[in-house]
Amino acid sequence: MPARIGGLSSHTVAAIHRVEFRHLDKGLVPGDTQTALRCYLGFLSLPGRYLYLTATVCGCYECSLSEDVAVARDLLELVLARLPHRARRELAVLVAVLDEELERRTLPDPLAHRRLWSPGEQWWHHRLYDESHHL
């Protein structure tokens, strides 16, 4: 039985669970979606008017997924693309609310156009990161 994910129906949670198992070879691991949502919600629950994204010190995928909201959001995008229509719509509504809050509480990186970005990299990677995080 898949673990409950707050705010989502059991139908959607089961669909997410199936996607995670079907795409083990693509880097998805069962529970990753829940970890990504927990990271996203945790980041947005931080105090302060503006938030700055933080990269992990470790840099491994597991730490990045649970600590770097941009990596977590990438995983949610991957899962959304693989879900059946009904489950995709339900998760998309939840993610859209989080995206609005992320866009509102983070600042665009004015130098993003100067950096090398991966093809298809999404807007959430073009927000300001806290550069002092690793000091």
Blueprint of the fold:
Layout: H1 10-22, H2 32-44, H3 61-67, H4 69-82, H5 85-105
What does this structure look like?
The protein has 135 residues and is mainly alpha-helical. It has helices at residues 10-22, 32-44, 61-67, 69-82, 85-105. α1 (10-22) crosses α5. The radius of gyration is 15 Å and the shape is globular.
Strand content: under 5%
Alpha-beta classification: mainly alpha
Distance between the termini: 42 Å
Order of helices and strands: HHHHH
Low-confidence regions: none
> What's the tally of helices?
5
Entry summary:
This protein is an all-alpha fold and 135 residues long. It contains five helices and no strands.
Descriptors for this entry?
135 residues, mainly alpha, 5 helices, 50% helix, globular
